[in-house]
Amino acid sequence: EAGVAQSPRYKIIEKRQSVAFWCNPISGHATLYWYQQILGQGPKLLIQFQNNGVVDDSQLPKDRFSAERLKGVDSTLKIQPAKLEDSAVYLCASREAGDSGELFFGEGSRLTVL
Amino acid sequence: AQTVTQSQPEMSVQEAETVTLSCTYDTSENNYYLFWYKQPPSRQMILVIRQEAYKQQNATENRFSVNFQKAAKSFSLKISDSQLGDTAMYFCAFMNLQGGSEKLVFGKGTKLTVNP
Q1: Backbone angles phi and psi of A70, in degrees to 5
Q2: Could you read off the pLDDT of A28-81 as tens digits, one per residue?
Q3: Is A101–B43 a contact, with Cβ atoms under 8 angstroms apart?
Q4: Sheet with A19-24, side-by-side order of all strands
Q5: What is the dihedral of CA B65, B70, B73, B79, to 10 degrees?
Q6: Best mutation site among A9, A102, A107, A111 for testing chain B: the one with the most B CBs within 10 Å?
Q7: Which of A15, A16, B8, B28 keeps 20 to 30 A from B97, CA to CA?
Q8: Residue in chain B nearest A36 by alpha carbon
């Protein structure tokens, strides 16, 4: 079974530029999460989708971050304009319906903002 | 809001020995899961072990076991017969099963180094 796919793995941009990250979850997984992991910290939830609807985006900085999950499958996270403090690893995870609780994570996209 | 605290930023252990990682959490909910995730240097998070709050019996997965103390809100991970491949960041995480938003809340992590 294919895992959670993310791209790009690495991205370096200047501040005020824009960037987009893509995630393809495990087939059949209804719930998709984007987490931000700043160096030395635990991951922090940015947004959670159930199919193509948003369940929780309370910690998403909506003035610069946006995310969508068209057709309830893959998802894109965009940052525009980027700030220095956005340097982090952006982790995508998915989970199937049911109560197993386990999230499956991708390898992440490392963003460096200069 | 739920919080997860890992008080040991770094730990080390000799190969083949046993090590325990600590985790405490704060919640007013009664129906939840607790997890330990491992993040090797390649960064992909991998589930190590899961505990349902309603179960009194501590979860065990091969060399990994937990000590779940619900009243104390404590959830420690014991790694027996440590192996070099256990070197990684370990994150304790909480998932509330009520309210519709079943998301993981992570601690800050413990960096474990297994020495040969």
Answers
A1: -70, 140
A2: 899 999 999 999 899 999 999 998 899 999 999 999 999 999 888 999 999 999
A3: no
A4: A5-7, A19-24, A75-79, A65-68
A5: -10
A6: A102
A7: B8
A8: B106
